[in-house]
Amino acid sequence: MAQVALAFAVLHIGGATDLGLVLLAREIPIVVFLLIGGVWADRASRKLLLVAGDAVMGGVQAATALLLLTGHATVAAVAVLQIVFGTVTAFTRPATIGLIPQAVMPGHLQEANALVDLGRSTMRIAGPAIGAVIVVTANPGWALAADAASFAVSALLRMQMRIVRGELPGRSHMLAELRHGWVEFVARPWVWLMVSAFGLFQLTLFPAMLVLGPVVAQTELGGAGAWGAILAAQAAGSVAGGILALHLRPRKPLVAACLLALPVAAFLALLGAAPSVVLLCAAAFVAAVGLTSCDIVWQTTFQRNIPSDLISRLSSFDWFGSVALNPIGYALVGPLSGRIGIPETLYLAASVNAAVTIGVVLTPAIRGFRDRAVLRTA
Q1: Is the pLDDT of residue 168 over 60?
Q2: How far, in Å, CA of 7 to CA of 41, rounded?
Q3: Would you say 353 and 204 are in contact if contact means Cβ atoms under 8 Å apart?
Q4: Which domain holds residue 58?
Q5: How many domains does the chain have?
Q6: CA distance to 90, 164, 253, per residue, from 247 (Å)
Q7: Do 17 and 335 form a contact (C-beta atoms < 8 A)?
Q8: Global pTM?
Q9: 206-251 pLDDT per residue, tens
Q10: What values do phi and psi take at 303, rounded to 5?
Q11: Which of 197, 209, 206, 205 is closest to 298 using CA atoms?
Q12: Which of 290, 274, 294 is nearest to 230 (CA)?
């Protein structure tokens, strides 16, 4: 609900460039603090870190809802709150990746990742549609208020988790731990190649989709209801992708992950053409099936092949590389679309997206990688 509500709330008080700036405000602190968040998640309780993160992010969404409901919302105020949201996200993302292997046996890791994603994706099916209804019939602040409540529920549920906590490594200077993480990161070409590809992939996907998608819906497809339907179809595709990932056991998981992500480029191109809501929903569904399966296969491969005391730090480098270019995309997508046109910007994003995905598959480090855990169970 919040994704639809925030987009159209900002479009109501501003324009496409303002929406890009608000999303940019969320992304910049993620880039700035993500590596520090990875170090903290390897040296502290990941469970408590996530509970605290839920509390703060819920507070941010509640404050945004209050501004919208009282009519005092401005682009600047919403952007400041998104800065806080992004800062907390920088600490919770690495902690989440490291927490899952502490909660399940190694042989069930992929199923655990798939089930976690299934739960998230299932909630996203109805969420965008409900969010669109709220935007059309009432104030988007109510959708953000519901999101704030969901963070409170999440914190309560996480507090009940029973986690096997291994021995924490001895603490050293923050910079020394970051340096050690970097050495381990660059020593694995299969990791940094995939992360570099993810960075370029996300540069062309999320800024184009999240900024230009609502604008296309508003100008060409009938408004918030159309965008809510597309996001709901995308969420349904994520559910299907999670079910598919429960059964995937590719011998070349990194090649499989890249190929599964290819339909995303087709979705971006179709979004530029804006043929119909039905066709875009179908394309969003297929793209989400592939992208969700790709993400689960990658996360599982990463968790299986990285030592437990390095998972959060290296996952922070993973996230950092994946999102580092996003602020550039959010800053440029509005002005670029104003200069060359929205359809042309989406076509360009689709072309770069496909080229990056195909290019990384052709590298020897990716084609030659084998998941040892899969080979042992084969």
Answers
A1: no
A2: 31
A3: yes
A4: 2-377
A5: 1
A6: 31, 26, 13
A7: yes
A8: 0.71
A9: 888 888 888 888 888 888 788 888 888 888 898 899 888 888 888 8
A10: -65, -35
A11: 197
A12: 274
Instruction: Give the pair of three-digit tokens for residue 268.
Output: 């971006």
What is the average per-residue pLDDT within 71-83?
91
The two three-digit tokens of residue 302, written as one number? 């990463």
> How do residues 264-312 score in pLDDT, each as one tens digit?
999 999 999 888 889 999 999 999 999 999 988 988 888 888 887 788 7
The CATH number covering residue 53 comes to: 1.20.1250.20
- Both tokens of 60, joined, read 């941010």
What's the CA gap between 127 and 330, in Å, rounded? 24
pLDDT digits 0-9 by tens, 307-352:
877 887 888 788 777 777 777 887 888 888 888 998 999 999 999 9
Return d(Cα 260, Cα 24) in angstroms, integer: 28
The two structure tokens encoding residue 54 = 């839920």
